[in-house]
Amino acid sequence: MRKIAIINQKGGSGKTTTAVNLAATLAEKKRKVLLIDLDPQASTSSWFGQSRDSKGLFELFTNKTNINDIIVHTDNERIDLIPSSSWLMGLEKRLAQEVGAEIILKQKFQELPKRRWDYIIIDCPPTLGILTINALTAVQEIIVPVEARIMALAGLVQLLQTISVIKERLNPKLRISGIVPCRVDLRTNHAKEVVKELRSNFKSKMYKTAIRENIKLSEAPSYIKPITEYDTNCNGAHDYRLLAREVIKQERK
Ligand SMILES: Nc1ncnc2c1ncn2[C@@H]1O[C@H](COP(=O)(O)OP(=O)(O)O)[C@@H](O)[C@H]1O
Ligand SMILES: [Mg+2]
Question: Whole-angstrom Cα distance, residue 248 to residue 252?
Fold first, then answer.
């Protein structure tokens, strides 16, 4: 079972869009996916029509529930979900005093059945707080979506530094499986320049796929459908299929 965190501390990078639609395109390729919505804003949960009113994930972190009891099925038979909880907002404060709070999620993962899913994909919040650190401690892999704007590049360097600290202190097996440019507007030189810059700076860490700006991707959540079902032939669906293909290729590693 591969465990992947979708992370970027900048909001609007394309994390949620990537988590949901990578899960959907992996599911098309017969992979079973457990999606975890670790963002209190609950965008992934609402994309699947789930409310964030339950205390589920919050109770997981406060050790009051078993992880298997907070998994819900989605309309896609190959995708299960652990929905977010608005209660997560108060978690940073609550866990600040707690010894070993960074490894709670990793420990909870041990309660999961070993072979039910091929992938666990975690949609992270846009912060580098205790929730994101839990994700980075519990997974082996990271996918970093980056918005194709020059402003996004500085944040990326900071993120890579944080990742190397986590790797050193908490999770030696952690690796970046790939950086993926998102919202690439091919009509502008700016976007093309940024992608070029990313490729020259981060070389082999970059996925070959870039996700183009595609209005369908921003409409799909309102229809409670991943892009593969909302408009199966649009550019967004095409691009996420290419990304899934690259991710699947890494299975052999
Ligand atoms: N490739 C894309 N084309 C068009 N809109 C996109 C694309 N990717 C993301 N968006 C939109 O950009 C906004 C931020 O994306 P989102 O995935 O929610 O980022 P994050 O989870 O990192 O905050 C959302 O409104 C989303 O619909
Ligand atoms: Mg998000």
Answer: 8
Give me the long-range contacts of 189-197 (CB less than 8 A, separation at least 24). 190/148, 190/149, 190/150, 191/148, 191/149, 193/150, 194/148, 194/149, 194/150, 194/152, 194/153, 195/148, 197/150, 197/153
What's the CA-to-centroid distance between 112 and ligand 2, angstroms? Answer: 24
CATH T-level assignment (fold) for domain 2-252: Rossmann fold (3.40.50)
DSSP structural state of residue 63: T
Give the predicted TM-score (pTM) of the model: 0.97
* Residues around the ion ligand 2 (C-beta < 5 A): 15-16, 43
Q: Do 39 and 72 contact (CB within 8 A), yes or no?
A: no
CA of 13 to the centre of ligand 2 (A): 8
Amino acid at position 210, single letter: A
How many CB atoms within 10 Å of residue 191?
A: 21
Per-residue pLDDT tens for 55-85? 889 999 998 899 999 999 999 999 999 999 9
Which residues form ligand 1's pocket by a CB distance below 6 Å? 8, 11-17, 43, 126, 182-183, 211, 213-214, 217-218, 236
User: Given strand 2-6, what is the order of strands in its sheet?
Assistant: 72-73, 79-82, 33-37, 119-123, 2-6, 141-147, 175-182
- 113-134 confidence digits (pLDDT tens): 999 999 999 999 999 999 999 9
Domain boundaries, the chain: 2-252
